[in-house]
């Protein structure tokens, strides 16, 4: 009987016990913030930025690091490739920081977080490649390729998704009511919207 009474007491205090247990369990919002990914992203970005500096600004330092004693100067092709690689690594460093989930929003999270840094890096690479001397048609070829990537990226940042959706009704303008009577078409939704406006 005594064990039964204890069980009854425990059942009677169940509400109180569960409320105290719930208070002890940390919720996801109240949990301590783990900044491991943020520290990793900032460390990777810092290392990549430091690696890009000699590629962009001090390419002769690479000769010192490689113990190349036979040539004191970089060839134009080596200088060109160092500059292109430096810009790419710098764009990648910016992309790592922007894509990190713990970093406050720098760009619109609805779009690809690498869109802005890669587009800017491609545009800078295109301008630098166009003005490169001593590499022949490689500079023009590289300039056209990275220019297309940069221009397309800027176009996507400015105009993606804005022209197809109606601001009044929210309908997709690419659909049509002709032939099959699509109820989600912009024209049908505009008529329904005008009818609702008249009723008000």
UniProtKB/TrEMBL annotation:
Keywords recorded for this protein, A-Z: Membrane, Transmembrane, Transmembrane helix
Compositional bias of kind Acidic residues: 1-10
Key word Acyltransferase present: no
Region (Disordered): 1-34
Regions crossing the membrane: 39-57, 77-100, 112-132, 138-159
Protein name: Uncharacterized protein
């Amino acid at each position: 009987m005594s064990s039964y009474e204890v069980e009854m007491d425990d059942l009677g205090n169940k509400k109180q016990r569960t409320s105290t247990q719930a208070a002890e369990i940390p919720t996801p919002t109240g949990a301590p913030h783990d900044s491991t990914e943020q520290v990793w992203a900032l460390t990777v970005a810092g290392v990549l930025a430091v690696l890009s500096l000699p590629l962009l600004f001090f390419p002769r330092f690479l000769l010192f690091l490689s113990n190349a004693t036979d040539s004191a100067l970089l060839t134009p092709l080596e200088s060109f490739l160092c500059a292109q690689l430096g810009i790419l690594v710098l764009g990648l460093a910016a992309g790592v920081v922007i894509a990190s989930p713990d970093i406050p929003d720098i760009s619109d999270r609805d779009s690809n977080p690498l869109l802005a840094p890669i587009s800017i890096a491609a545009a800078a690479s295109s301008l630098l490649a166009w003005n490169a001397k001593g590499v022949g048609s490689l500079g023009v070829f590289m300039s056209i390729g990275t220019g297309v990537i940069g221009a397309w990226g800027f176009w996507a940042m400015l105009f993606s998704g804005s022209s197809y959706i109606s601001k009044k009704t929210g309908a997709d303008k690419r659909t049509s009511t002709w032939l099959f009577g699509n109820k989600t078409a912009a024209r049908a939704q505009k008529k329904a919207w005008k009818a609702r406006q008249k009723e008000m």
